[in-house]
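F.,

This is the one I mentioned.
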């Protein structure tokens, strides 16, 4: 059972990795904002893969007894945000990840190794 935000963030990152997501990052942001403790960011190669990664995260998290409080972006499948309270997962298409550059916006965040 996942209890701590770090465990949840690492679990989500491993699910992303299992679905062949690219450029996976786990950012610790808890000292920078009250939005969340962690952002987990990845890129899917296509809108189909972005959607597939989202579906897998949702299924695996529900299997752990954890439901997303909110999911945005399902219609376009270019940037899906999954809000798990202390952990927010961002699944980007390559173009949207390059455009929004969350990695740069949160450049002061500590990057963690989830493997």
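My design for it:
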């Amino acid at each position: 059972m996942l209890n701590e935000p770090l465990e949840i963030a690492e679990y989500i990152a491993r699910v992303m990795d299992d679905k062949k997501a690219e450029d996976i990052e786990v950012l610790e942001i808890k000292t920078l904002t009250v939005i969340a403790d962690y952002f987990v960011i990845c890129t899917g190669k296509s809108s189909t893969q972005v959607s597939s990664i989202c579906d897998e995260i949702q299924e695996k998290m529900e299997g752990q007894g954890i439901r997303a409080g909110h999911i945005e972006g399902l219609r376009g499948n270019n940037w899906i945000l999954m809000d798990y309270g202390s952990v927010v997962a961002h699944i980007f298409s390559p173009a949207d990840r390059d455009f929004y550059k969350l990695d740069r916006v949160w450049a002061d965040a500590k990057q963690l190794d989830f493997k």
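The radius of gyration is 13 Å.

Talk soon.
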